[in-house]
């Protein structure tokens, strides 16, 4: 009937929405002030509001003091990190919770799910006897998935780098190519996509906006809303955005974030483009089928042309060919066409 989930990361949010839709009353507890901290807040806020509308309660910015219970009920004692009580994101008390006025609250539920991350299990591998180096994070491997013993390779979660099924598959290809065929092949660490499979989905590949800004990288943000993708309008899936980070002059893609329906499919467009040096200009010049969600990727690429419009050049062309159309208004840097 009810569940408390500790952890607002990908697994916690996926399970919260899934159980809520199956009829369970779900509360999500996390120390952070927002869910999915590795994704942009403007993206995750859309997801959180959707989940709140469906009935999920969020208790963010809190720590778990204690957990107790029996076969019938579990009690999770939480406390706001700043000492003041903090309820769900909509500010009301949750059914089955109690506070004592000190910022402490007890959440009661039938079940508790811990979604606070995973750690590798190395105890049974007897790595010391084999002379294979490892840390708490996992077995140490190089870019070819080779361990400290040249004839031993490690892939997947046990290597401690990326806990993604698709990255395990990629590492398997790298390891077997090096071990069996002796053809040098390295892992691609720069173009690793990830997706949180909620509704809407949240997806990312490449560099994020914060990292680019902190490194002083010069780039532009090319945005396009789901509300202007005709297929999304037809399917009533208009809550979502595509954000692409790219170089202004060349259109070289540095990274992308997407929230919306089929974001996990769309992000592959940018992973492929980045891997093979396909610019936004080339994407914009490619024919995409209509109506499709993928066309949203092309429409986002179109914004590279829009942002590179030069009023002086347009004015010159207008005069040269004696055109009489209205000159574009370039005063708004965030305009989307």
Q: Could you please describe the fold and organization of this structure?
A:
The chain contains 10 helices and 15 strands. Strands 11-12-15-14-13 form a 5-stranded antiparallel sheet, sandwiched between helices. It is α+β, with helices and mostly antiparallel strands. The protein has helices spanning 10-21, 41-53, 127-130, 165-181, 209-214, 230-234, 263-275, 280-284, 295-307, 311-320, and strands spanning 2-6, 25-30, 57-60, 62-69, 74-80, 97-99, 104-109, 111-114, 134-135, 138-139, 194-196, 201-206, 220-225, 241-246, 253-260.
What is the number of E strands?
15
Q: Tell me about the biggest sheet?
A: 5 strands, antiparallel
Form type: globular
Q: What is the overall number of helices?
A: 10
Indicate the structural class.
alpha+beta
- The low-pLDDT segments are 84-95
Helix proportion of residues, in percent? 25-40%
Order of helices and strands: EHEHEEEEEEHEEHEEHEHEEHHHH
Gyration radius, to the nearest Å? 24 Å
The portion of residues forming beta strands comes to 15-25%
Could you give the order of strands across the largest sheet?
A: 11-12-15-14-13
The overall pLDDT average reads: 92
Distance between the termini: 47 Å
């Amino acid at each position: 009937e009810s569940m408390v989930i500790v952890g607002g990361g990908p697994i916690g949010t996926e399970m919260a929405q899934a159980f809520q839709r199956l009829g369970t009353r779900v509360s999500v507890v996390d120390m952070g002030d927002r869910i999915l901290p590795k994704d942009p807040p403007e993206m995750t806020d859309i997801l959180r509001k959707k989940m709140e509308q469906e009935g999920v309660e969020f208790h963010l910015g809190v720590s778990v003091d204690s957990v107790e219970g029996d076969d019938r009920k579990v009690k999770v004692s939480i406390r706001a990190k700043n000492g003041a009580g903090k309820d769900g994101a909509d500010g009301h008390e949750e059914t089955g919770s109690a506070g004592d006025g000190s910022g402490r609250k007890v959440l009661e539920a039938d079940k508790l799910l811990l979604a606070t991350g995973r750690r590798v299990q190395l105890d049974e591998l007897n790595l010391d006897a084999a002379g294979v180096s490892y840390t708490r994070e996992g077995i140490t491997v190089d870019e070819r998935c080779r361990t400290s013993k040249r004839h031993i390779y490690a892939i997947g979660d046990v290597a401690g780098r990326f806990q993604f099924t698709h990255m395990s598959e990629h590492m398997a290809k790298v390891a077997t190519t090096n071990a069996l065929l002796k053809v040098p092949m390295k892992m691609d660490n720069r173009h690793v996509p990830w997706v949180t499979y909620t509704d809407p989905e949240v997806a990312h590949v490449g560099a994020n906006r914060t990292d680019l800004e902190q490194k002083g990288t010069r780039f532009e943000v090319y945005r396009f809303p789901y509300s202007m993708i005709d297929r999304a309008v037809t399917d009533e899936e208009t809550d979502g955005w595509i954000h692409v980070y790219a170089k202004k002059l060349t259109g070289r893609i540095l990274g992308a974030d997407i929230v919306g329906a089929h974001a996990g499919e769309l992000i592959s467009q940018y992973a492929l483009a980045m891997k093979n040096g396909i610019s936004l200009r080339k994407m914009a010049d490619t024919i995409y089928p209509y109506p499709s969600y993928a066309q949203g990727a092309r429409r986002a690429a179109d914004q590279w042309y829009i942002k590179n419009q030069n009023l002086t050049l347009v004015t010159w062309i207008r005069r040269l060919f004696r055109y009489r159309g209205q000159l574009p208004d370039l005063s708004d840097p965030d305009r989307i066409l």
